[in-house]
Amino acid sequence: MTAKQEWIDVAIDALDKAYVPYSHFPVGACLVTKEGKIYQGLNIENASYGLSNCAERTAFFKAVSEGEKEFSHLVIAGHTSRPISPCGACRQVMSEFCEPSMPVTLVGDNGVLKEMTVEGLLPYMFTEEDL
């Protein structure tokens, strides 16, 4: 098994762990550090919808809370007919912690994939240079 397939499997595995009693729309993520450490993320909903957290941000916040700030790849998986698309908030978080050229793999049902970059997901991103 390739490393990339392992990352895809980690993201897909997270779908079963997601806490989605309201939307019934699970999302899983696998964030990989430059050293190869893996952080799994899943979406966690709340009855007060604004307090929910996406899978991608869960993975980033777990990693950053453990001192990680250099990442090499992100995989996002969902039960969608086409590759899942991350929300705008998650795209902005990606731009905070990732190089614009970092690969992002989007995964839908039946193994359908789309390869992107952080910059491809959020062109003309807001960065520290804009402050």
Automatic annotation (TrEMBL):
GO terms for molecular function: cytidine deaminase activity. Its EC number is 3.5.4.5. CDD domains: cytidine_deaminase. Keywords: Hydrolase, Metal-binding, Zinc. It is an enzyme of class 3 (hydrolase). It catalyses: cytidine + H2O + H(+) = uridine + NH4(+); 2'-deoxycytidine + H2O + H(+) = 2'-deoxyuridine + NH4(+). The keyword Transcription does not apply. Residues 2-129 form the CMP/dCMP-type deaminase domain. Its cofactor is Zn(2+). The keyword Hydrolase applies. Pfam families: dCMP_cyt_deam_1. This enzyme scavenges exogenous and endogenous cytidine and 2'-deoxycytidine for UMP synthesis. Belongs to the cytidine and deoxycytidylate deaminase family. This is Cytidine deaminase. It comes from Candidatus Enterococcus moelleringii.
